[in-house]
Amino acid sequence: MTATLIADTAVDVDAEGFLTEPIQWSEAIAEEIARDNGIPEMTDRHWLVVRFMRERYLTTGAAPSIRALGKESGVPVKELYELFPKGPAKLAAKIGGIPKPKGCI
Amino acid sequence: MAEKRIVILGGGTGGTIVANRLRRRFDLTEAQIDVVDQDDWHVYQPGLLFVPFGMAEMHELVRPRYQQLARDVAFHEGEIEAVELDHDLVTLADGRVLPYDVLVVATGARLQPEETEGLLGPGWNERVFTFYTPEGAGMLRDPLEHFEGGRLVVNLVDMPIKCPVAPLEFVFLADWYLRERGVRSRTELVYSTPLDGAFTKPVASAQLASLLAEKEIELVTEFNAGEVDGVGGKLSSYDGRTVDFDLLVTVPLHGGAAYVERSPGLGDALGFVRTDRHTLQTTAKENVFALGDATDLPTSKAGSVTHFEAEVLAANVARYFAGEELETGYDGHANCFVETGFHKALLIDFNYETEPLAGHYPFPVGLPLLRESTLNHFGKLAFQWIYWHALLPGRPLPGIHPEMPAAGKRFPVPAAKGG
To answer: Which of B195, B268, B299 sits opposite A68 (nearest CB)?
Structure first.
């Protein structure tokens, strides 16, 4: 875990850049992480997914998997990949300021 | 008339062990025990892996469910319609109604190939197969026997799946089988997975990745399969990558049993039952417990898990009836033999906190962990006998306990906490 500066705010991140303290998050931080990861502009659809992920994590202690995200957020899996290229669940978690989703065994 | 009524949904590994353990715990005046399943065929699922290679026959893997249950456990064959949590009863599709004081959900996971575009389209069971069903495993034998080279792709669509090591075992066995048949040099073997490595946890993942490399099996990671073209032989990912195949062996998406979705409050978005990870009581209602593949617990969907859970669950049902606090004894303990071909296997042992590590199981002297050995291969073979004769009856296995043993494992320094 290292301390770094995102959007002029001091935050703690893990080796891959995921915030380890969700409380340090802000919308400005989200926008900067998004830009750094190939999303120049956060649309309403991006925010919908990011907020859904974040709320789920804060209420249940775990971020939903990509499939659960597709079923419950109202954004189909195909569109999730268009919004967050490569790994939607991982990238949305990163932008949402929550720890990296754990792969189940 | 018994004092309490326990209804167990599912007569597979978990339901059977729990029924037999509870039957020993309560006499006939104390509890009536009912088990419900949609059919009377108990399949030894670890055996399905061997069927396509002619190393096991289907009839050796199947026994009547009814016969695995203790005397005085009632078995009902029928499709479950729904669980009515508010009224403490289960309804079956044919109209039967089973009221309960305690319900145990053990209906496992269901394959959902229909959720992947094109998977069930043209080419299904012709050049696109799964070995995760008895029918699929049987039908795959012929195309493997006549495979004359080309690209054989083994794909896992997405987690969670039953026995996460099985697709890896399949590709290891395919390598061996095709070498024996003399066509391996004309075959490109590919393993494609949505994970970022060969496996979920770092130490085992690295070990298994080097085994794949050693056997010249190409590893394609972070591949989230979204579409299958069974005629053109093309597997496409959601992010636009493609993998060509001549023969595709896939592990389809999994969800919970269909009735879970018809029972408000019982399951999550995928139909898995929300369950406390240490007590195995569900969060749906205090008199409902769950175990095995049916739960949403962050551990493997594997028989060993179910077996360890059954011991804790049975004790907690008794505590619940006695009005005592539940024991938080389940630690996520799992172990699996990973068949690697050439009469060898490796063994992994882990729990919620500790990832699979090297060492020995269950004691500092025992089966080698995370290392290929002939001993482990014979362990895997012997396990089938143990399954029917000791595990299902719910008899204690010497040295094997629900809690993961730490002795015998080589912990990295400082002791790593897995996730």
So the answer is: B268
Whether A98 contacts A50, CB under 8 Å = no
B113-252: CATH topology: FAD/NAD(P)-binding domain (3.50.50)
| Domain ranges (residues) in chain B | 4-111+255-322, 113-252, 333-419
Residues ≥6 apart with Cβ < 8 Å to B183: B147, B148, B149
Q: Which domains does chain A possess?
A: 2-95 (1.10.10.370)
pLDDT at B3 over 50: yes
Per-residue pLDDT tens over the stretch B299-312: 999 999 999 999 99
Kindly tell me if the per-residue pLDDT of A105 is higher than 60: no
pLDDT digits (tens, 9 = 90+) for A3-49: 899 999 999 999 999 999 999 999 999 999 999 999 999 999 999 99
Asked whether the beta carbons of residue A67 and residue B298 sit closer than 8 angstroms, the reply is no
Provide the residue type at B266 as one letter: L
Phi/psi for B176 (5° steps) reads -60, -50
Kindly report the number of other CB atoms within 10 A of residue B208's CB atom: 25
The structure tokens listed for B7 are 């209804």
CB contact under 8 A, A72 and B239: no
